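Our preliminary data section would be incomplete without showing what the modeling component actually yields. Below, a chain of 273 amino acids is followed by its predicted structure, encoded as tokens that our downstream tools consume directly.
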Amino acid sequence: MMIDISEKEFKRIADYIKTNYGINLKTEKKSLVVGRLQNVLIQNNFKSFAEYIDFVISDKSGDAVVTFINKLTTNHTFFMRESQHFNYFRDRVLPYLESMQKRQKDLRIWSAGCSTGEEPYTLAMIISDYFGAEKMWWDSKILATDISTKVLETAIKGIYPSENLDSLPIYWKTNYFQTVDTENSMVADKIKNEVIFRRFNLMNEIFPFKKKFHVIFCRNVMIYFDNETKRNLINKFYEFTEPGGYLFIGHSESINRDESKYKYVNPAVYRKE
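Predicted structure:
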């Protein structure tokens, strides 16, 4: 049994997700919406998408909206994705931050839209390598946030198919992972303990952070946003970036210079002066 979606129902879902989560569902995404939500409707005996969206909006427990978001957000990430960013972080950003924070030894890094956790774990491994024995004196815990509870559960467990680690240095595989079984590996506790995972919606009016960040990674998240949503978010990031701090975005994304005070420093890397 296939439940079809009408124009009106699609528009309601698209408006709801745009208003509350900033995600832009283009019309061609209609089949995606049907494909991803079909089973939820059938399992819960909803007769139509209209009935389902009514339920999502009125559900006070918040569980329905979590399922809705988990189904509709695409999460595709892997270790060392866009590796030139990680090289830049290691070779340029860390030496700068080390000299700037010599006294405080406090690095504040945010992985926004962290998905299943590969990005923040990669950053934690790079930091561990970079500081070596000195690392114990530094507070460099990484905040990693996402809107999807489903990906955060995976991230917190830190268990990945071993074949996903193929692109990583041998040293990392032996030092920062342990074997779970014949097919899976788990991030070692010394790296896990460096990342704090939280559910967070980038569309929230208020960002609850007491201090600004030295580095923000928000890669391949804004591809789902329209220009105005993107502009507002980038300006918010700017406000929460320390002077001299960096913003990394996805290679398929860009920041319009006239709409942001960030300065371009490298492909998909920007800096607050």
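The radius of gyration is 20 Å. The chain has ten helices and ten strands. Preliminary results of this kind motivate Aim 1 of the renewal.
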